[in-house]
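Q: I have two molecules that I believe assemble together. Could you output structure tokens for the complex as a whole instead of separate predictions?
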Amino acid sequence: MKVKLDYPIPLIYPIPITLVGSLVEGTPNYTCIGDTGLMGINPPLIFVSSHANHHTNKGIMENLTFSINIPATNLLSKTDYCGSVSGSEVNKSALFSNFFGELKTAPMIEECPVNIELSLVKEFSIEHRQIFVGEVAATHIDRDILVEVDGLKKIPSLPQLDPIIYALDNHYYRIGEQIGTGYTEGKKSISLPQNA
Amino acid sequence: MKVKLDYPIPLIYPIPITLVGSLVEGTPNYTCIGDTGLMGINPPLIFVSSHANHHTNKGIMENLTFSINIPATNLLSKTDYCGSVSGSEVNKSALFSNFFGELKTAPMIEECPVNIELSLVKEFSIEHRQIFVGEVAATHIDRDILVEVDGLKKIPSLPQLDPIIYALDNHYYRIGEQIGTGYTEGKKSISLPQNA
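A: Yes, here they are, computed for all two components at once.
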């Protein structure tokens, strides 16, 4: 039996916790953003939605580049801090070792196991949200957790990446046990008749 | 030390696993989509990115409405199945108890603990990806897991919702332990000087 909530909450979960980086007037800035997600693998697209007054937005519009840095749970305090204070007030790049990649203007965080450089391919606003769609230029990963199979670099499993998981209950969580494999669990046990 | 991956992978995680519903020529259809995410709470926006040839897209364009249904781990097989077969071949609505809400044309799944009805507010394409931005019209939740505090309906915590967690390693996971609280962990231990 269902209940309708009093407000139309966009109750989608889990939310990926990321540190979005941009270069604002020459200084790397990072903000903690959960309003982000995968838009496709080929072409490799990620979007970020940010309140129009965020300091980070300025740098994205200045350089047309940005980064997504994915912290592991050992960076929980710094990550949360980046979401609690503005780059207009403090220099958040002092919290991290910063580096640049192919795009030269998308600052990245050495301490995050995964760093993604993006070129802005589309930008639009809905009310006070400014939405950026980026195409991935390069993906960087810690050598220690990289899996190499037959000379090919394979991405690590989710537990190795140990991400910070978030939801609208405003709590952070760790990843739990593996419960299945994609494109496999369903067909093992379910079969529907073909449409006529 | 970082390594650049051979391909520019949009390695963002965790990915929320959802069943996106639309009414295609009168029949509810659901597809398993992880290319989705929160675009903002106020206004309440969620986007879905779907390959242009997906059957579900037809129903979204036909009615300008769609639904996001969030399965718990007990629906893993059915969820994975919905991502493995096309509604053009089988009638996936036969897997679930279907219901409609305020929008009348956005089919929802009774067995999912959370159901969100959305009106299409923006649609665009990047190469073969069709991207839909919806504004939430109503959010429905199982009465059993609803938390009521002082007469106000509060959303449940993430472990109560027991979501299916996914990442580009193609495995499904369960949520783990709570490790902190938003907008709290950082300021407990970190303080940077104010900009001059």
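A: One point stands out. The longest strand of chain B covers residues 129-142.
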